[in-house]
Amino acid sequence: MEPQNLRGLPRLLLEASASHLEFIQMQSCPEFEALPNWFQNLTSLQRLKIIDCPKLSCLPDGVQRLASLSHLKIQLCPTLSYKCQLET
């Protein structure tokens, strides 16, 4: 799937490797809108980078339960950044 057309993470990603996935980088996905609710099930995820996803507007509630997550980078996501500024 081309990143330009990606609107969300495919369900296959969860089914194939959720318990072992340690790193996700999403970059230059102009149509990507939201992380799925099942994202909180990625229990081994240590690093998450989201770069240049201008339509991404929120993170799922379960992100704070990702106990293994030690590095989070969100860059060039203006919709999400604006929403975070409003909520703080």
From TrEMBL:
<dbReference type="Pfam" id="PF25019">
    <property type="entry name" value="LRR_R13L1-DRL21"/>
</dbReference>
<keyword id="KW-0433">Leucine-rich repeat</keyword>
<dbReference type="GO" id="GO:0006952">
    <property type="term" value="P:defense response"/>
</dbReference>
<dbReference type="InterPro" id="IPR056789">
    <property type="entry name" value="LRR_R13L1-DRL21"/>
</dbReference>
<protein>
    <recommendedName>
        <fullName>R13L1/DRL21-like LRR repeat region domain-containing protein</fullName>
    </recommendedName>
</protein>
<dbReference type="InterPro" id="IPR032675">
    <property type="entry name" value="LRR_dom_sf"/>
</dbReference>
<keyword id="KW-0611">Plant defense</keyword>
<feature type="domain" description="R13L1/DRL21-like LRR repeat region">
    <location>
        <begin position="34"/>
        <end position="75"/>
    </location>
</feature>
